[in-house]
């Protein structure tokens, strides 16, 4: 798709490291290995550096609300996708905080995010609790939180 190539080219130019989601794995006509090879080829065509070529990826079904790191993993929730995003954000924030301190500036802060609408993929700020369909992720992101009641 031309728009995917355009956006990816801009992201790579800014030295970003995208997280790849190979979606619609639940379909009978899926071809995850071929798609992953095509993604590598696209990154190479767009002059991705070595670090960008080592991109994290997950296989997913957006419709069914699951993601897995390996096709043999249990298909139950979005934790693998969220974990990749969470770790990428932490790494960016640590890098930014170190740069800011070196420049004598205040350290950067992180704004946790979550999906607001299960199938639409709308994104918004995390204000209080995880939505019901992301309860499994709560134990990953906040294992020390104990529910009262």
The number of distinct β-strands equals 5
**Largest β-sheet summary:** 3 strands, mixed
H/E order of the elements? Answer: HEHHEEHEEH
Overall outline? globular
- The number of helical elements comes to 5
Tell me the strand order in the biggest sheet.
1-2-3
Low-confidence stretches: 113-130, 145-149
Determine the N-to-C terminus distance. Answer: 50 Å
Specify Rg, calculated over alpha carbons: 17 Å
Rounded average pLDDT = 74
Strand content: 5-15%
Helix content: 40-55%
Summarize the structure.
With 149 residues, this protein is α+β, with helices and mostly antiparallel strands. The chain has five helices and five strands.
